[in-house]
Structure formats: structure tokens, C-alpha cells
Design a protein that fits this description.
Number of strands: 6
Strand order of the largest sheet: 2-3-5-6
Helix content: 55-70%
Shape: elongated
Structural class: alpha+beta
Oligomer: single chain
Length: about 500
């Protein structure tokens, strides 16, 4: 009996060794295209003139919001990165992708199951051909107990690389998810800064309106005094009252914008409405822009923008899935085996005489599936083409975003300088027309026109100063800044 068992064991070992050796010989084969990162030709410099501020020095995008030198903005950005729900959602998707990568990697290894059973049976007189050990089964017509325990194992050998291609795709999916998280951080930081700059701009516009109402009210008081003295007609009083009322009408609209902007910031920071009202309601100046803004060259943007990097990783995943689909055209090899014990008495369960085992290779090869496999391959090829087009779109969009933000920033600076000159000229006009009117040498209509022009130019100057800062924020966003590692801003979104 021991010689027979030894012969069976040797035969099983030979079968197993031959199957494993054959698998190792051709295990390096992976069907489907090997991925090569796409390349594109870009200009060596920006098409738009850099103007005042921007330079081709390497971009300093890490923690760019600190260049505005506003502690409140710095605090808001850090808190937003810690609590924003979009960033948390993106981080959860990174964890999901990592789990799917582990799931795909598990297919490289064999699966082993352990099991046991107990049955109470009665063997019939006509039972023949039992696969169970004769030493374990009582004579026909006898009731008996059967205890069984053992291991079952199976291993599909990745001969043609389908599993490895799936792992390759899952790895690229993880990297794409991480870039999506980085892109969410870029957008979050930019949106926080944009809303903060707009808030300070609205607050300055409110102050300008209130200051102009004060000046216009003084003119109204002057006209009333002159009218009561019989020096002017009631027409000047009515005009002054209308001027004050028109300016006062601007107040509710600006206050509405202030409150709405604070609420938008509260959403970005994932806090309840009203949580930031006390903190942000006191007016502060619009954050000023730095004198020098290094932006680098166009090729830098393609390496830095997380949306471009995400599109490239999606292309890598789509390419790998072509091989995963193609592997189904080829046979699949597997090894299965089991070993265990069975006995009619529990105490005899570990006896060598009651041991059973089986081992052997298997092969499956689809010969007819109504075109399903080839259809899946065509689908995978089409999705790779879609991913490549999306990468091209991301490249063009990134370059276009930067050019648009660049021209907007430089041109708005020129506009702001002219508006500053207009404000100074209108201040002189108001002072001169008021003095002439007080002396009775000028018409009150000149005073009204000068005050109206001053208010309009001051408001436009504030809006332009606000726009210069927001355009710089857009430029930093277009350059892909704001996602580089920083303990205070990015630790909350790290994987668990």
C-alpha cells in the first residue's frame, strides 16, 4: 500500500512540476500593446507677451497663496484643504482605487480553502462505484457517520498576461485617482482665494459708496442752506437728493454680494451657514499682487497640471485593458488540488489510511462565444482612443488656460493704472467744482457731474484692483499650482 501511495505521489509531483515549468517558460508573455507615454510638441515660449510682472523663471506654485501676504487667506486655504467635502470625496476615491488594485493583484496567487463536514448516512445494497475510500465506508445496508476535513486549492497560471495587464490598469487607475485628488486641491485653493478676493473687493466698494454718500449728503445740505437763503432754486436741491438716493441704492446690492460670498466660502470650508460671518465681516484691503510672478515655460505646465497627468494615467489604464481583453482569446491554464481526511469515527480522522488527495492541471479555451471576446477587444481599443483624445484635449486646455489667464492679468494691470489716474483727476474735479459753487462762480450741475464721475471711477478702480488679484489667482490655477505636498494643507486628505 505504501508503494502504491508513493507512486501516486511521485506522479502528482511530476505533473505539478511540468505544469509549473511550462508556465514559467512562457510567463513573460503579455498580449496587447505595451504602453508608451504620449508626447506632443509645444512652443518654447508663451505666445502672449508677459507684460508687467510675469517672467519665464521657474514657477513658484507651491503655497502660491502666501505670496498675497494675507494671513486670513492663508488660514482659509489650510482649513478648506482639511475639511472640504470635494477633496474628501476625491481622497475616498483614491482609497477605493487602491483597494481595487489589491483585488486585481490577488488573481496572481492561488486560492486555498479549508473545509470540513459531517454526515450521517445509510449505504444501500446496490451502491457501486463509490469514489470514497473503501477503508472508510462500511458494508452495504449499514448506517454510519462520515467525518471529512481537508484543503482545496486552485491556481490559474497567468500564461498570456491577462492578470498582469489588469494589475497594470488598476495601478494606473490609482495614479489617476491621486491626480484627480490633486486637481480637486488646485480647484479648491483657487476657489477659496477667488471668493476671498471678491469679498474684500465688495467690502471696499461698500466703503467707497458710503464715503460718496457722505460727500453727496454734504452737497445736499449746502444746497438746502442756499435754497433757504433764496440764493438758488429748488431744482438744485432735487438734483442733490436724487444723487444721494441713487448712490444709496447701490448699498443693498453690494451688501448682498458680501453675504453671498461669505456663504460660498462657508461651503468651501464645509461649515454651517453663518459660521464665518463674524470672522469675515470686518472689512479688509484687497490682497495685493507680488511684483514678480514666475510662470516658467509651456512644457512646465504639462508636467505640473494634475488634470493632464490624470488624462495620461487614464490612457495608460485604457491601453493595459486592451491586453486584458485580448487574453481571453487564448487558453487558460490552471492547477487544482485537494488533500484531506475522511473517516467514520472522529478519532480516526487523522490516520494516514484515511487520507485522500488529488492534483492535476486543467485547460479551458473558448471556441465559440458569438463574438463576445472580439467585441470586448474592440471596446477596449475604442476606449483607448477616447482616452488619447481626452489627453490631447487636456494638453490644449492647459496651454489655453494659461495663455488666457496671462493676457487677462497683464491687460488688467494696464487698465488699473489708467483708472487710478482717472480717480485722481476726478478728485481734483470734485474739489474745484465744489469750491466754485460755494463761491457762486459755478453751476451745481458741474458739482453733481464731478461727484458722479468720481464715484464711478473709484468703484471701477476697486473692481479693477480686485480683478487683477483674481486674474493672478486664475493664472496660478492654470499653471497647476496648489497641490504640492504641505503638511498643514494636504495631510487631511491622505489615505487611511
Amino acid at each position: 500500500m505504501s508503494v502504491v501511495k508513493k507512486g501516486y505521489s511521485m506522479r502528482a509531483a511530476y505533473v505539478l512540476s511540468a505544469a509549473v515549468l511550462s508556465a514559467l517558460v512562457i510567463a513573460g508573455c503579455k498580449v496587447g500593446p505595451d504602453y508608451k507615454a504620449p508626447t506632443t510638441q509645444v512652443a518654447v515660449k508663451w505666445s502672449e507677451p508677459l507684460g508687467q510682472g510675469p517672467t519665464t523663471q521657474p514657477a513658484l506654485n507651491q503655497l502660491w497663496w502666501r505670496r498675497f501676504n494675507d494671513p486670513e487667506l492663508n488660514s482659509l486655504v489650510v482649513r478648506a484643504a482639511r475639511s472640504n467635502l470635494d477633496v474628501k470625496l476625491a481622497a475616498a476615491r483614491v482609497r477605493e482605487a487602491r483597494a481595487l488594485r489589491r483585488l486585481a493583484g490577488a488573481d496572481e496567487y492561488p486560492t486555498v480553502d479549508v473545509g470540513g463536514s459531517y454526515t450521517h448516512s445509510r449505504n444501500t445494497f446496490g451502491a457501486t462505484g463509490s469514489s470514497q475510500s473503501a477503508a472508510s465506508i462500511p458494508s452495504p445496508g449499514v448506517e454510519y457517520d462520515l467525518y471529512r476535513a481537508g484543503f482545496d486549492a486552485s491556481w490559474e497560471i497567468d500564461v498570456f498576461g491577462g492578470v498582469r495587464r489588469n494589475i497594470e490598469a488598476a495601478t494606473a487607475d490609482v495614479q489617476a485617482a491621486m491626480e484627480a485628488r490633486n486637481s480637486a486641491l488646485v480647484s479648491l485653493v483657487a476657489e477659496t482665494a477667488l471668493n476671498y478676493v471678491q469679498l474684500r473687493g465688495f467690502q471696499e466698494r461698500l466703503k467707497i459708496a458710503q464715503d460718496n454718500i457722505h460727500v453727496q449728503q454734504q452737497s445736499l445740505d449746502l444746497t438746502r442752506t442756499k435754497f433757504q437763503a433764496g440764493l438758488i432754486s429748488e431744482l438744485d436741491v432735487s438734483r442733490a437728493q436724487a444723487q444721494v438716493a441713487v448712490t444709496e441704492a447701490q448699498i443693498p446690492s453690494v451688501e448682498q454680494s458680501i453675504r453671498q460670498t461669505i456663504h460660498r466660502l462657508e461651503v468651501l470650508l464645509a461649515v454651517q451657514p453663518g459660521a464665518l460671518a463674524e470672522e469675515l465681516s470686518p472689512a479688509k484691503a484687497i490682497p495685493g499682487t507680488p511684483p514678480v510672478v514666475p510662470i516658467g515655460i509651456p512644457s512646465d505646465v504639462l508636467r505640473r497640471r494634475p488634470d493632464v497627468r490624470q488624462a495620461e494615467r487614464n490612457l495608460a489604464a485604457a491601453t493595459a485593458r486592451i491586453g486584458f481583453a485580448t487574453a481571453d482569446l487564448f487558453p487558460k491554464f490552471s492547477l487544482t488540488g485537494s488533500i484531506g481526511y475522511q473517516a467514520t469515527q472522529f478519532g480516526n480522522l487523522g490516520s494516514n489510511n484515511n487520507m485522500y488527495y488529488s492534483i492535476g492541471p486543467g485547460i479551458t479555451w473558448p471556441i465559440f462565444d458569438a463574438g463576445r471576446i472580439r467585441a470586448n477587444i474592440k471596446i477596449a481599443n475604442a476606449r483607448q482612443e477616447e482616452a488619447f483624445i481626452q489627453w490631447q484635449q487636456a494638453v490644449l486646455q492647459s496651454l489655453s488656460d494659461t495663455e488666457v489667464a496671462l493676457v487677462a492679468y497683464t491687460q488688467e494691470q494696464a487698465r488699473f493704472q489708467k483708472l487710478t489716474e482717472a480717480v485722481e483727476a476726478n478728485k481734483r474735479a470734485v474739489a474745484t467744482s465744489t469750491q466754485l459753487y460755494e463761491r457762486g462762480l459755478g453751476d451745481f450741475l458741474n458739482v453733481l457731474d464731478a461727484q458722479r464721475d468720481l464715484f464711478a471711477s473709484q468703484d471701477a478702480e476697486v473692481v479693477s484692483r480686485q480683478t487683477v488679484s483674481t486674474n493672478l489667482v486664475q493664472l496660478y490655477k492654470a499653471l497647476g499650482g496648489g497641490w504640492e505636498p504641505e503638511s498643514a494643507a494636504t495631510q487631511p486628505v491622505a489615505s487611511r
